[in-house]
């Protein structure tokens, strides 16, 4: 099966709702879902206020 051509609803159906799908297909569908999700990155605060010593 070509996982890159499958739509997200199809992948979710295979990964979670299809009881007859082989385990290998379920893992591949989950991997493709995770691959399509954008990577979360931390926000960097470049405007840090300078603190002067007392």
What does the secondary structure layout of this molecule look like, with pairings?
Blueprint (H helix, E strand, L loop, with lengths): L7 H10 L5 H14 L18
Helix pairs in contact: 1-2
Rg over CA atoms, rounded to whole Å, is 21 Å
Into which percent range does the helicity of residues fall? Answer: 40-55%
What is the overall shape?
Answer: rod-shaped
Task: State which percent range the strand residues make up.
Answer: under 5%
Backbone structural class? mainly alpha
N-to-C series of helices and strands:
HH
**Mean pLDDT, all residues:** 89
* Major beta sheet summary: none
Low-confidence stretches: none
Count of distinct strands: 0
Notable characteristics:
0% strand, 54 residues, single chain, mainly alpha
Describe this structure as you would to a colleague.
- This protein has 54 residues and is an all-alpha fold.
- It has a domain at 1-37.
- 44% of the residues lie in helices and 0% in strands.
- The chain has helices spanning 8-17, 23-36.
- The longest helix is centred in the middle third of the chain and has 14 residues, at 23-36.
Brief synopsis:
This protein is an all-alpha fold. The protein has helices spanning 8-17, 23-36.
């Amino acid at each position: 099966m070509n996982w890159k051509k499958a739509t997200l609803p199809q992948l979710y159906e295979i990964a979670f709702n299809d009881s007859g799908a082989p385990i290998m297909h379920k893992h591949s569908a989950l991997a493709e879902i995770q691959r399509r999700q954008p990577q979360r990155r931390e926000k960097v605060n470049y405007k840090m206020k300078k603190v002067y010593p007392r």
